[in-house]
Design goal:
Elements (H helix, E strand, L loop, with lengths): L1 E6 L2 H10 L12 E7 L2 E6 L3 E6 L2 H5 L7 E2 L16 E7 L8 E8 L1 H10 L9 H14 L2 E6 L1 H7 L5 H20 L6 E5 L4 H8 L10 E4 L7 H25 L9 H19 L8 H9 L1
Parallel strand pairs: 6-9, 9-10
Antiparallel strand pairs: 1-4, 1-5, 2-3, 3-4, 6-7, 7-8
Helix pairs in contact: 3-4, 4-8, 9-10
């Protein structure tokens, strides 16, 4: 898969949005204006003015709108040129945008020997894999490389959410997963730590200072981190597999399909749970601060 980046003005990005109106994706991508997919090409426009085109025809689609600013063969300007071949500890999270299910954060370590095995396995962005592929691949990855997985269940999430906003919560979990994995692989030290960026670096640093054992050295931040190192891709797959397993377990317990995301099916299931057991039941399975809770209450 290739990728191409354009740097556009706000008015130009609005033209893109209008053009791709029928192809918009309703998903929450941090710091983005919109996401869309047309003819196999994914388009993500960021608030910074950068627009990322991904897919086999990414460059062709991008040239409709201007001259590419960067290609997928180049790493982020903040990363060393040989970053993809370094021994890296990467972290990513899944479940942040889903009303039901936990928040899963994973840190994974891949050295040069691991990279060969991960490439052979076909490790890549979890969003490009089917759920069945993710489940199967995660099992193999767990046997190949060191990792640390943290799963914050909805009931605990709801308990700490008033004190920890969504960003601070993720900072705390990423920091803890990274710290625990560093302890696990010691005395080995990674060449770098790469966090799939979910908030500006300054914001991350502000919150991590509030942790009792902050990890601060050799940390890089970049969106779409799985494109820059397989450690992040592996962490993403492990997190996603865990999230899917948790949804399956909840579905089995409740006797109803527990959906991912935060759409209408989530509202309807939440309303059903409210009728069955009130808020005390719902809080065990859903992140209550989402707007879905109010929508479900109206349905009831």
């Amino acid at each position: 898969m290739s990728a191409t980046v354009l740097k556009l003005t706000k008015s130009e990005i609005q033209k893109l949005r209008n053009y791709y109106t029928d192809y918009l994706l309703h998903k929450n991508v941090p710091y983005s204006e919109f996401s869309a997919k047309k003819n196999g090409v994914s388009i993500t426009a960021y608030t910074s003015g950068k627009v990322l085109f991904q897919g086999n025809n990414a460059e062709t689609e991008a040239t409709r709108w201007g001259k590419p600013a960067a290609a997928s063969t180049k790493t982020s300007g903040s990363l060393p040129a040989n970053f993809a071949s370094l021994a890296v500890l990467g972290s990513d999270e899944v479940g942040n945008g889903s009303y039901f299910g936990p928040l899963c954060v994973c840190a994974a370590y891949a050295d040069k020997e691991h990279l060969t095995a991960l490439k052979k396995l076909g490790v890549k962005d979890s969003k490009m894999l089917t759920d069945d592929q993710i489940r199967s691949m995660a099992k193999t990855i767990k046997e190949l490389i060191p990792y640390k997985l943290l799963v914050l269940q909805p009931e605990k999430y709801n308990e700490i959410q008033p004190k920890y906003n969504a960003v601070r919560m993720k900072v705390a979990l990423h920091n803890q997963a990274i710290r625990l994995l560093l302890e696990q692989i010691a005395p080995v030290k990674p060449d770098a730590i790469l966090i799939d960026q979910f908030t500006p670096e300054a914001n991350y640093q502000k919150y991590v200072k509030q942790e009792t054992q902050p990890v601060k050295e050799k940390i890089y931040f970049v969106t779409k981190g799985e494109q820059y190192h397989l450690a992040v891709a592996a962490a993403s797959i492990i997190s996603r597999a865990s999230f899917l397993e948790e949804l399956d377990a909840a579905s089995h317990t409740l006797g109803a399909k527990v959906p991912s995301g935060a759409g209408k099916p989530s509202d309807e299931l939440a309303a059903k749970l409210l009728r069955q057991g009130g808020m005390s039941l719902l809080k065990k399975y859903a992140k209550l601060h989402f707007a879905n809770t109010e929508k479900a209450q109206k349905l009831v």
